[in-house]
Amino acid sequence: MTDAVILAYDPEVPRQIAFFLIAAVMVFSAFRVVTTKNVVHAALYLVLVLAGVAAQFILLGAEFVGVTQVLVYIGAVIVLFLFGIMLTRAELGDDESVATERRGMAALTGVLLFGVMTYAVVDVFDDQTIDRTEASTTGQIGDAIFKEYIIPFEAVSVLLLAALIGAIVIARKD
Amino acid sequence: MTEVYLNQFLILAAVLFSIGVYGVLARRNGVMVLMSIELILNSVNINLVAFSAFRGTLGGEVFALFVIAVAAAEVGVGLALVLLLYRNSKTIDFSEVDAMKG
Amino acid sequence: MMLFAADPLLVGDFGWDTLAIMLGKVVIAFALLMLSVLFMVWFERKVVSDLQNRIGPNRAGPWGLLQTLADGIKLFFKEDLVPNKADRFVFGLAPYLSLIPAFLTFAIVPVGGDFTNNNGVVPMPGGEQTYLQVADPPIGVLLFLAMSSLAVYGIMLAGWSSGSKYPLLGSVRASAQMVSYEAALGLAVVAVLIQSESLSSHDIVAAQQGGIVNWNFFATGVVPFFVFLIAGTAELNRPPFDLVEAEQELVGGFHTEYSSIRFALFFLAEFMNTVTMSAIIVTLFLGGPNGPILIDSLGWFFPTFWFMLKLFVFLFTFVWFRATLPRLRYDQLMDLGWKLLIPISLGWVLFLGAQSIGRDRGWNSIAIVAVTALVFAVAGSLLVAAINTAKADRARALEEDPEGAHGRFT
Questions:
Q1: Contact A16, B7 (CB under 8 A)
Q2: Residue-level pLDDT at C403
Q3: Does the distance separating the beta carbons of B49 and A65 come in below 8 Å?
Q4: Which of C188, C197, C227, C315 has the smallest number of Cβ neighbours within 10 A?
């Protein structure tokens, strides 16, 4: 099997190409999420961002987190969003009340924040590289959750229960 | 040899975070504000997983999972609030909810 | 980072023949799925008409076998209508969103390979070896769950983008139904995962080899299988859970406004999902391609034969459901999902977990069963008491205030 080897290149090259392609899609979709006037379109662009995040997780070797992202975020959270949108204002077309006068200040805040964070990040992690060689397995993550991080895990489960009860109490019709 | 830099993930996360902050500040529609918060939470998740890969430990990944769970809870309660708001005042525009101002 | 390193095809160098085999597998899986859909539509119509004492399609081709092809050609040449109030882009996107997850799920199904003697490895021309499945990612079964949650989007967006009342109602029903039943579906899968201790579909099949008692159907104690079957039927929006497109209430449900090739895509997706779900059930619970190799020289033939046979049994079961069971009311549907299937499958997962720990620690297995039965009895009666109290409260509130919100379900 040495005669026709395709994979004789640097394996990081396709990873980098994938990263920048996905990142471009994510940034564009994130912009559309906060600028589009149609609420359902915003939710769909958010799906693109979340799928991109899941893809980045897989590129980072965190498959389980990536597939959980798809399952929980895309499969449940956005469906919940769409459900909420359909229950409140299901009309098609543009939602005028979404446009706003506070755009200028918000944009300034966003740009400043981005500048500060980028400066800090570049300053500290200038040319550090990620050289993880193998993906983490589901078994390792399970062990970590149920040994090292058992207390936060229990806290999260109590939080979820509280949120469940809270959501029912808030949304109840009485 | 191409290298994968830690910074490329951190800066991507910073971009998403800033866009999310812009969305939270500029939007008045309750559902849109919640969506922008999701953007912020996801940028944090990218950071957590990137650092996890950088340091070769699992802590970041585990906490990313916790963040996903907390985000699900947050959306559940948040959307319940938006629905309640819609039912009581027939609007989900946060800037019109100022009845407490007296 | 080798994501798919589990498949022996990808061990070692990645050459042109490796690529050719991968492409071949993808093309064959695609063709197989399309053919099975063609067959499935005809099969469903024929069996339903047999059960209803009709003749069914019998014009196009022998026994009407080409009926689906004829229908497809007809739909292809019909006018493609887009309603005036529709959101054009989403309206066009929705059919594909419901079709793609059906394809992707099939990628993790092992359709053959001798698990008894050879651990499912099949030799290929050119000295390569491979599994007979398109991909074997380490997160295998989670991919199935993720794809089944993606399938909601096609239906939901189709309903919303039509800009019309009935499709919207249909899609709201669909999203609530699919999200509800996904929980039961996931818990049934967890039972399988506890048994086989792996997420990869190949490992799950391999763990079930060695006779019928090792099949997860028995090994997980039958309950998860039935939960999965019911939840899977609900997930597919097939009768008796087809409230999404209840003709008497919602015209055609989410695809009322669809016509021509876009409608055909929804139709295709629906039947493809049925085939894929049957294949997943076979993989998870009935040992996939496992079965006796009757003639040694035909070792490549029998596993695929057994897989197809089991698949066929489930395809028939789904058609049988359609022909015999009356549709549930919406509140009955929700009650079944939340008050019966989820508690049962959750309890069963805990029981299997306790058994698994008990095996490691050497606990008395009779004690485990006794404690489980006790816990089930207590938890079950608490649940029933809670449901009855809530029901009585609602009834009282309705009596006091017949116009109030309590009596109506939203």
A1: no
A2: 64
A3: yes
A4: C197
Q: Report the b/e string of A31-47 with b at 16+ CB within 10 A.
A: bbbbbbebbbbbbbbbb
Q: Average pLDDT of C2-6?
A: 47
What number of C-beta contacts closer than 8 Å exist between A and B?
253
pLDDT digits (tens, 9 = 90+) for C349-380: 988 888 888 888 888 888 888 988 999 999 99
| Cβ partners under 8 Å of residue C275, min gap 6 | C33, C36, C37, C40, C106, C311, C315
Q: State in words which class domain B6-97 has.
A: mainly alpha
Looking at CA atoms only, how far is residue A28 from chain B in angstroms? 10
**Residue C88 Ramachandran class (φ > 0 left, ψ -120 to 50 alpha, else beta):** alpha
**How many whole angstroms from its chain centre is CA C8?**
28
Q: Count Cβ atoms below 10 Å from residue C70 Cβ, excluding itself.
A: 14
Choose the closest CB to A62 out of B56, B61, B86: B61
Give the count of domains, chain A.
2
What is the span of the domain harbouring residue A162?
137-174
With respect to residue C2, please indicate whether it lies within any of the assigned structural domains. Answer: no
Structural domain span for residue C41: 8-363
Q: Are residues A80 and A150 in the same domain?
A: no
Residue in C143, C176, C410 nearest the CB of A67: C143
Percentage of residues of chain A with pLDDT beyond 90: 32
More confident residue, C371 or C292: C371
- A145 min Cα distance to partner chain C (Å): 17
Question: Would the pLDDT of C398 be above 70?
Answer: yes
Mean pLDDT of C281-291: 87
Judged by CB atoms closer than 8 Å, whether chains meet at C16 and A133 is answered as no
pLDDT in tens, C199-245: 888 888 888 887 788 888 888 888 999 999 999 998 888 888 877 66
Nearest beta carbon to residue A114 from set B15, B26, B71: B15
Q: Which chains touch C (3 or more CB pairs under 8 A)?
A: A
ipTM of the complex: 0.89
Q: What is the pTM of this model?
A: 0.87
Q: Specify whether A92 is located in the same domain as A145.
A: no
CATH code: domain of residue A32: 1.20.120.1200
